[in-house]
Amino acid sequence: MTQTLLLLPGDGIGPEVTAAAARIAGLVAPDLELQDDLVGGASIDAHGTPLTDDALARAKDADAVLLGAVGGPKWTDVARDKRPEMGLLGLRKGLDVFANLRPAYCFNALVDASSLKREIVEGLDLMIVRELTSGVYFGQPRGIDTDADGTRRGYDTSVYTSPEVERVTRVALEIARGRAGRVCSVEKSNVMETGLFWRNEVTSVHQVHGAGVELSHMLADACAMELVRNPKQFDVILADNLFGDLLSDEASMLTGSIGMLPSASLGIEGTPGLFEPVHGSAPDIAGQGLANPCAAILSLEMALRWSLARPDAADRVMGAVAKALEGGARTRDLGGSMSTDQMTDAIIDQL
Ligand code: NAD
Ligand code: IPM
Ligand code: MN
Are 145 and 152 in contact (CB under 8 A)? Predict the structure, then answer.
């Protein structure tokens, strides 16, 4: 049966980097059917909503979804529930992709592109497993209200249930089994109820399902510090939605640029995964052909590996990116001068 990959280019540099990934897909998986649809600001402009029911239905029907990025200054004044970012959250929730894998590995060719010293990042290979469909991103109540006395109040609710913590913890344990076998769970159990709950639940899940995996715990602020002091101590970092968001942006700089970091968001087996760069729509460079396409191309690599069961094609993509970098291919964020298309050509030359 034909497999389908739904492309949701989105906004800003999203369409530029998604087009690069689509070119690569055409070469390594020519039989893959590519479809496309709108999300984020592009969908607001066309349909008045950041995610249509139709686009979500197509995503659910696809074998995998590759998203570019959403958001930008054009939509800052749009009502919160209609903002581009809500399209992305709706997609994550709608696909129930609760486990977000954000690998940070430093390609050998890029050890000197990081803002950290060579010895800190050389050989770095860590995986952040971020819970993606709950926590403070979705908790109710939330709002901005005015009290009777005129005091204004802004609030969000951080909430997790035991099944939510259990399922993402089990993914982290499974991932660790295929790696160095260590999970470090992070939270703020010293100040947050959800933090203490998270720590206790993860510990219980590990007792039942953690054979062969070493579990440790760290406060999220300390983890942020350790990530730049000695990142190679980590194998798998398990975090909630908010801390995982912050720590993965931090981890991206260990790899040289946020333009390098891909991600895979997975639900239960047999449902389509959502694959997207960790970076955003980069309004400051959008439309100029300056975006690094590697995060999007490596997100395609993850789609081939995790949802489409094409490990050989995934290996080819990974090898071609590594070789292109070894050959000196660099976009501006990596200290070079290549355009998005030139960088993509350099990767294609290696295929
Ligand atoms: P950003 O990641 O878009 O940009 C941060 C910085 O990194 C900018 O200087 C940008 O030029 C640079 N950068 C990012 N990707 C790059 C690439 N591929 N190549 C070269 N340089 C790159 O973050 P931001 O500016 O804080 O957010 C911009 C918009 O993107 C916001 O609306 C935000 O909500 C949205 N956003 C979307 C996603 C997503 O769709 N998954 C992720 C993060 C942010
Ligand atoms: C990310 C982004 C998103 C998030 C935004 C755009 C909703 O920052 O994917 O890292 O906060 O999850
Ligand atoms: Mn983020």
Answer: yes
- 113 pLDDT more than 90: no
In tens, the pLDDT along 255-273 reads 989 999 999 999 999 999 9
Q: What whole-number distance in Å separates Cα of residue 349 and Cα of residue 67?
A: 24
Contact 5, 32 (CB under 8 A): yes
Q: Which atom from ligand 1 is nearest to the alpha carbon of 40?
A: 40
Write out the residues surrounding ion ligand 3, Cβ under 5 A: 245
With a CB cutoff of 8 Å and minimum separation 6, the contacts of 150 are none
CA 33 to chain centre: 23
Mean of per-residue pLDDT scores for the chain? 97
Is residue 71 lining ligand 1, measured as CB closer than 6 Å?
Answer: yes
244 Cα–ligand 3 center, Å: 8
Residue 135 Cβ contacting ligand 1 at under 6 Å: no
Confidence at residue 110, expressed as pLDDT on a 0 to 100 scale? 93
The residues with which 152 forms a beta bridge, in sequence order, are 146
Which domains are present in the chain? Answer: 1-103+261-351 (3.40.718.10), 115-255 (3.40.718.10)
CA–CA distance from 204 to each of 163, 176, 197, 209 (Å)?
A: 12, 17, 11, 9
Q: Is 195 exposed, middle or buried (0-12, 13-18, 19+ CB in 10 A)?
A: buried
Residues in the chain, overall count: 351
Q: 245 C-alpha to center of ligand 2: Å?
A: 7
pTM here is 0.96
Tokens representing residue 332 in the block: 């501006």
- Both tokens of 268, joined, read 């239960």
**Ligand 2 atom with minimal separation from the 245 CA:** 10
- Nearest-atom number in ligand 1 for the CA of 71 is 32
Whether 11 is in the pocket of ligand 2, judged by its Cβ within 6 Å, is no
